[in-house]
């Protein structure tokens, strides 16, 4: 190998090493996606175990939520993300511990569906007014790695019974 080729090779090799060792500006996002995928896989296995232990047969949405439509409700009265739902609901974890419940109808102080957790945004648009749905929501589609006060711990899979009483 002549001197010019050897120098070019070393320069190219050095650039590859320097570039490979530099911090990627997208590395945090990439790690979050990897962590999110890992959490979804782990929680999917836990959900499958829960379903087997409770003899549940649920559909799985491409998003990762599991659901069973118990009452489809009025098919001509479907919500959009801007709708304000009035719901009766219970939220539990995979150990069947009650986390919270509406104890009657609530519209969450007029909060639009788009301002609720992603699992509810997906699930509630599968039923019409008067409908009822059972949902199992992996934490990335629920509250994620954020705890909700002392009520819902971070990374909790949510098991929800939700009735869509009405919406505006």
TrEMBL record:
Stored InterPro entries: PPIase_dom_sf, PPIase_FKBP_dom
Keyword Isomerase applies: yes
Domain PPIase FKBP-type: 82-168
Top-level EC class: isomerase
One Gene Ontology term of the molecular function aspect: peptidyl-prolyl cis-trans isomerase activity
Keywords: Isomerase, Rotamase
Entry-linked SUPFAM superfamilies: FKBP-like
Family from the record: Belongs to the FKBP-type PPIase family.
Name recorded for this polypeptide: Peptidyl-prolyl cis-trans isomerase
């Amino acid at each position: 190998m002549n001197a010019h080729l050897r120098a070019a090779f070393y320069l190219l090799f050095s650039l590859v090493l320097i570039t490979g060792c530099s911090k990627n500006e997208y590395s945090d996002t990439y790690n979050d996606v990897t962590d999110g995928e890992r959490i979804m896989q782990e929680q999917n296995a836990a959900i499958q175990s829960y379903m087997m232990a409770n003899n549940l047969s649920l559909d799985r949405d491409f998003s990762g939520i599991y659901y069973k439509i118990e009452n489809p409700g009025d098919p001509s009265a479907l919500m959009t993300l801007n709708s304000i739902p009035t719901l009766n609901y219970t939220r539990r974890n995979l150990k069947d511990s009650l986390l919270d419940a509406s104890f009657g109808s609530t519209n969450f102080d007029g909060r639009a569906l788009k301002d609720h957790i992603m699992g509810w945004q997906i699930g509630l648009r599968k039923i019409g007014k008067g409908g009822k749905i059972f949902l199992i929501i992996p934490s990335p589609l629920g509250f994620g790695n954020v705890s909700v006060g002392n009520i819902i711990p971070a990374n909790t899979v949510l098991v929800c019974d939700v009735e869509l009483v009405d919406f505006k």
